[in-house]
Amino acid sequence: MFVRNKKFKIPHKMMIRLKNFLYVFNLRQGTILIAVHQIALSSFILIILLVGISHVGEMLSMLHNDMEDDAERRGFYEVAYGDQLTFHEGHVVSTNNQRRFAKAQHLASVTVIFLYTSTILTSIYLMCCISLLHGAVKYKREYILPWIMAACIGVILLIIVIIIGDGYPCVVNLFGGHNLYHFGCSLFVLTFIYAICAVSSFALETGGGRCARNTLISNDERGERLLLLDHAAHSSLLSAAQLNKLSHGTRTQFV
Asked: Above 50 in pLDDT, residue 240?
């Protein structure tokens, strides 16, 4: 019993444990709100990514048609695009037009890879959010832990994206400068971390409540066993040897 209690006290010292969510809701209500918000947000992002994949596919087909038309106008039908772009017929070094086509094709390929990867990660995160909602409603800790792990990985990826985005002036200008960019990104990251702490606190509360329920059940069984033993002792005036034998018996022997 003492060893189990020590195991449950270890996570409390390793993280910030909250007692409520935004000083208004309890941890269970806050976890449900976080789950609903994240499901709506990830679903919206997933729809945008799917629409982007369809548009990129159309752009690739249009780019391929333009490349074929340009090759036909020059009289070369087989074109090899690489680091140094050359035509198979005549071995003529490509002009700026072909270089632009090659850059556009490379950019489109990178965009497709990025969109497909983002779609897979968003789908996984959406499933974790649904699992979080189920765990919060059913009060089951094992359904909450996947979202916590996914959210921690998401925070790390988000910080990396913020650092990379700081090097692009077009991204910084959307926020009105570096100061507002840093402030907005910091606020978003801190909000995400606060949500993780709230859900983690609810998970610890769920685990502690389960241990308490198990302890109460075991205490109730011991109490019933003692009552049955006391009733048997007073009703039939059993000997000490028989009482000792009954004290080591199971609960079903008294029924």
From this structure: yes
